[in-house]
Write a structure and sequence with these properties.
The complex is a heterodimer. Chain A is an all-beta fold. Chain A is 0% helix and 47% strand. The longest helix of chain B is centred in the first third of the chain and has 4 residues. In chain B, 37% of the residues are buried. Classes of the chains: A mainly beta, B mainly beta.
Chain lengths: 120, 111
């Protein structure tokens, strides 16, 4: 079955950087769009970024544009999120999610999430 | 992209039906088939319940159904069960803007 396992979270100071990883298994990783979605403590879901199956197209939420970078290594079945110049408001659980078919634009499977507290 | 508005909370008794609405301020929901719904239990990852407005993924109970009317998409849960108690989020794809927006979420309480 589909398994997505995020890692790399942890306490980080404002202005610093952090890289999250998402190890994928149970499906043909190189065939699917992948996303990062985050959830601040006690708040709702917020879409962060998407990358196409081959890594050629990337899009970001306005709140992270210019600071975050999504990438993937299809040879390692791994998705990444490089987060630079972190702010307190970036504090959240970060989920990776497998995109659905092009006609659905849904988030079909989710990892368990990794917590990133940004605090001095 | 416009915001999606959901009621903060809804409740129902076991066996009853409830409907959660998701209203967009622009015409996007009305013209887009890219509305999906997610269930999230406390401390757990979200789970896809409905995609393309009304389709159910394999394994999701047929007690869950989706629909839309004008600028409002809706999730209906029939035959409420205790395990349905969770937060529910709608989501719409922006299409030309290549972005996604979630509703604020609705807390479902099964009385």
């Amino acid at each position: 079955q589909v398994l997505l396992v995020e890692s790399g979270g942890g306490v980080v100071q404002p202005g610093r950087s952090l890289r999250l990883s998402c190890a994928a298994s149970g499906f043909s990783f190189s065939s699917f769009t992948m996303h990062w979605v985050r959830q601040a403590p006690g708040k709702g879901l917020e879409w962060v970024a998407v990358i196409s199956y081959d890594g050629s197209d990337k899009y970001y939420a306005d709140s992270v544009k210019g600071r975050f970078s999504i990438s993937r290594d299809n040879s390692q079945n791994t998705l990444y999120l490089q987060m630079n110049n972190l702010r307190v408001e970036d504090t959240a659980v970060y989920y990776c999610a497998r995109g659905g078919s092009p006609s659905s634009a849904s988030f079909d499977d989710w990892g368990q999430g990794t917590l990133v507290p940004v605090s001095s | 992209q416009s915001a999606l508005t959901q009621p903060a909370s809804v409740s129902g008794s076991p066996g009853q039906s409830i409907t959660i609405s998701c209203t967009e301020t622009s015409s996007d929901v009305g013209s887009s088939n890219f509305v999906s719904w997610y269930q999230q239990h406390p401390g757990k990852a979200p789970k896809l319940m409905i995609y393309e407005g009304r389709k159910r993924p394999s394994g999701v109970s047929n007690r869950f159904s989706g629909s839309k009317s004008g600028n409002t998409a809706s999730l209906t849960i029939s035959g409420l069960q205790a395990e349905d108690e969770a937060d529910y989020y709608c989501c719409s794809y922006g299409g030309s803007s290549t972005s996604w927006v979630f509703g604020g979420g609705t807390k479902l309480t099964v009385l």
